[in-house]
Amino acid sequence: MELAKRIKQHRERLGMSQTDLANAVFVSRQTISNWETDRTYPDVQSLLLLSNLFGVSIDSMVREDSPEMREALAAGSKRMHCFGIVMAAFGLACLAWVIVGIVLDLDTACIVAVGAALFIPASVAAFQIDKMRHDNQLYAYQSVEAYLAGEDPDVNSRYNQRAGEHWVARRVLLTVLAIVVGLCCGWGAAGIISRLLGN
Question: Which helix (H) or strand (E) holds 82?
Fold first, then answer.
């Protein structure tokens, strides 16, 4: 993307080191390095600070990147949609299996084994969606596109401010919580269905 080159050019034009620029826009030197090597993309707040510091508009900094950002957003959205379908399909199949297994009074080990085999792809798909948001900077692109269109970029969103270093641990905790809630709901629904069928 062109923004990486522009940041470096403007920084060098002002005679600033990466550390100087990092201090001026309240990020780490590593973040500046990542921007200049096109590993990550700045969020809207950082772009505002950079444009003020460099004396140029945000539009002039990111104009040439806009088509590439739209392509990345479209591709990311399509992949997230596919992962979402996988997550929903396997999650519902897991829930249905648990309910059917309980109603048919199958062995608990069999219910758990097949349920886990169905739940794993759903969990992997959910993890991949989170990873795409984190690694591909899709939310940063979306915020920049919204800003350029005159819409609210939602710069205070937890995604734009980055969920932090512990996003994987939070995802694992939420997955375990989903498993517990799913099993409780499945067991409860199966019990109701068994009573209705007179088993």
Answer: helix 66-103
Using one digit for the tens of pLDDT, what is the confidence trace for 140-195? 777 777 777 777 666 445 444 444 455 566 777 777 788 788 778 777 777 787 77
Burial-class residue 47 by CB neighbours within 10 Å (0-12, 13-18, 19+).
buried
Reduce the DSSP state of residue 188 to 3 states and report it.
Answer: helix
Q: Which of 158, 161, 129, 1 is closest to 69 using CA atoms?
A: 1
Question: What do you get for the CA distance between the two ends of the chain, in Å?
Answer: 64
What is the C-alpha to C-alpha distance for residues 177 and 183, in angstroms, rounded to an integer?
10
If you average pLDDT over every residue of the chain, what do you get?
A: 82
CA-based angle 85:90:95, to the nearest 5?
125
Percent of the chain with pLDDT over 90: 28
Q: CA-CA distance, 157 to 166, in Å (whole number)? A: 17
Give the CA count within 13 Å in the CB-facing half-sphere of 33: 4
With contact defined as beta carbons under 8 Å apart, do 57 and 51 qualify? yes
**DSSP reduced 3-state for 161:** coil
Question: Measured between alpha carbons, how far is 32 from 55 in angstroms, rounded to an integer?
Answer: 18
CA 153, CA 163: separation in Å to the nearest integer?
17
| Angstrom distance (rounded) from CA 145 to CA 47 | 12
